[in-house]
């Protein structure tokens, strides 16, 4: 297999597009979903891998659904006949319903048989050592505030605090909605202010977590998958025999798609209205949508290069984002959000030395918590890049 080459796989659970690649002593998991994309760099010693055979649950679901589907198709055929010819003869009724029932039974048997034919999968799960390391890391985060990989947030001014406190007060107004209908618009206004002020400057979220996942071994990729698994096992054995101490935890970086996230949250707000049978609760759907619209309106007041850089960054065009934000920072050196975006863009391009230089220039514009968080993210990326062989060996992480 080629070093760093991506292998497209299909997860056992979950949709979207997933790819795996092996570079150095790190397995990279990249998943592009509808709401967000995530990339997880997992050092080889932190996980176990094995091949197994598993039932395909989708075939069982299809087989059960096919039982009523056949008669439903027969009924649809009868409805078309009635619409065209009027009365339905007994012979047509028997043929339509009998054919539908036979078709449903045939599909049921075919997919039920396919369900019991197990298919090869590859399972990857964290080792006990990794779980212990994450517990210790959580204890360290509690003892050493702030959290090492926390999002970079804007420092709050006294006006921000006043709006937040007012927003918290207004958030209590939904409890009055049963008595005073005008409390609902007040709740929307307060929620908009509260959500807007709590948004992050950072466009990505980085942490040290990964969980078990499995993927199917496709017939047309069987050889490539077996080569990947064999190479992972070989490198894991080599890492176990070496005297190197593995202190780097897996690094997960998530990049959200704002509108899709907003619509997903709005869709979830429909559930309380349905379960409680209260149509007024549908107004909750307007909160994330209006909050996003408010953020977009305020975003229009940002310089054009910054808006262009944000659009490029969110669709993964790192070169376009860098060109736009670099021009912005050169023209407006004091643009704080532009400085943060420039650092994150350079990290996405694996230009870690340049990102460190830009981070040093932006440090005077950020509060202490943001500085420590952004530096921790930069350091984690540098450590993982070293394991991939991107950085020179012996790099001092500071």
Summarize the entry for a quick read.
By secondary structure, the chain is of the alpha+beta class. The protein contains 14 helices and nine strands.
Question: What does this protein look like?
Answer:
The two termini are 35 Å apart. A hairpin with a 3-residue loop joins strand 3 (26-32) and strand 4. With 398 residues, the chain is α+β, with helices and mostly antiparallel strands. It contains 14 helices and nine strands. Strands 5-6-8-1-2-3-4-9-7 form a nine-stranded antiparallel β-sheet.
Rg from alpha-carbon coordinates: 27 Å
Oligomer: single chain
- The mean pLDDT is 77
- End-to-end gap: 35 Å
| Morphology call | extended
- Helix vs. strand class: alpha+beta
Q: Work out the strand percent.
A: 5-15%
Largest sheet: 9 strands, antiparallel
Strand order of the largest sheet: 5-6-8-1-2-3-4-9-7
**Secondary structure: number of strands:** 9
Low-confidence stretches: 144-158, 196-201, 392-398
The helix/strand series, from N terminus to C terminus, equals: EEEEEHHEHHHEEHEHHHHHHHH
Approximate helicity band: 55-70%
Count of DSSP-assigned helices:
14
Give the secondary structure arrangement, pairings included.
Elements: E1 7-11, E2 17-23, E3 26-32, E4 36-43, E5 47-54, H1 57-85, H2 90-116, E6 119-126, H3 128-143, H4 158-171, H5 183-197, E7 204-207, E8 213-216, H6 222-241, E9 251-256, H7 258-268, H8 270-276, H9 286-299, H10 304-314, H11 318-331, H12 336-348, H13 352-362, H14 368-388
Antiparallel strand pairs: 1-2, 1-8, 2-3, 3-4, 4-9, 5-6, 6-8, 7-9
Helix pairs in contact: 1-2, 4-5, 5-9, 7-9, 10-11, 11-12, 12-13, 13-14
């Amino acid at each position: 297999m080629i070093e760093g080459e991506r292998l497209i796989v299909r997860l056992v659970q979950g949709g979207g597009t997933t790819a795996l690649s092996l570079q150095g002593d790190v397995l990279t998991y990249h998943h592009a979903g509808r709401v967000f994309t995530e990339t997880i760099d997992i050092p080889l010693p932190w996980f176990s891998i094995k091949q197994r055979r598993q039932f395909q649950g989708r075939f069982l679901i299809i087989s059960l659904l096919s039982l009523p589907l056949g008669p439903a198709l027969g009924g649809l055929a009868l409805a078309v006949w009635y619409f065209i010819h009027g009365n339905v003869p007994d012979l047509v009724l028997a043929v339509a319903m009998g054919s539908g029932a036979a078709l449903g039974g045939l599909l049921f048997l075919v997919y039920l048989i396919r369900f019991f034919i197990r298919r090869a999968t590859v399972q990857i799960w964290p080792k006990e050592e990794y779980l212990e390391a994450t517990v210790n890391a959580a204890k360290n985060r509690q003892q050493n505030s702030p959290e090492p990989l926390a999002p970079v947030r804007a420092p709050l001014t006294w006006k921000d605090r006043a709006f937040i406190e007012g927003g918290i007060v207004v958030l209590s107004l939904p409890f009055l909605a049963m008595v005073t209908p005008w409390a609902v618009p007040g709740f929307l206004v307060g929620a908009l202010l509260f959500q807007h002020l709590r948004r992050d400057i950072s466009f990505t979220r980085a942490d040290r977590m990964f969980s078990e996942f499995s993927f199917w071994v496709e017939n047309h990729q069987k050889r490539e998958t077996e080569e990947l698994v064999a190479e992972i096992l070989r490198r894991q054995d080599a890492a176990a025999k070496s005297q190197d101490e593995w202190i780097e935890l897996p690094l997960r970086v998530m990049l959200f798609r704002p509108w899709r996230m907003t619509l997903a949250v709005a869709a979830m707000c429909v559930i309380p209205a349905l379960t409680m049978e209260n149509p007024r609760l549908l107004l909750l759907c307007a909160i994330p949508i209006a909050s996003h619209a408010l953020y977009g309106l305020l975003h229009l007041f940002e310089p054009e290069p910054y808006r262009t850089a944000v659009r490029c960054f969110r669709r993964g065009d790192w070169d376009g984002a860098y060109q736009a934000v670099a021009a912005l920072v050169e023209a407006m050196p004091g643009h704080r959000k532009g400085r943060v975006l420039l650092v994150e863009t350079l990290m996405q391009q694996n230009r870690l030395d340049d990102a460190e230089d830009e981070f040093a220039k932006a440090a005077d514009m950020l509060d202490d918590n943001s500085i420590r968080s952004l530096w921790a993210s930069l350091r984690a990326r540098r450590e993982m890049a070293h394991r991939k062989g991107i950085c020179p060996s012996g790099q001092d992480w500071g």
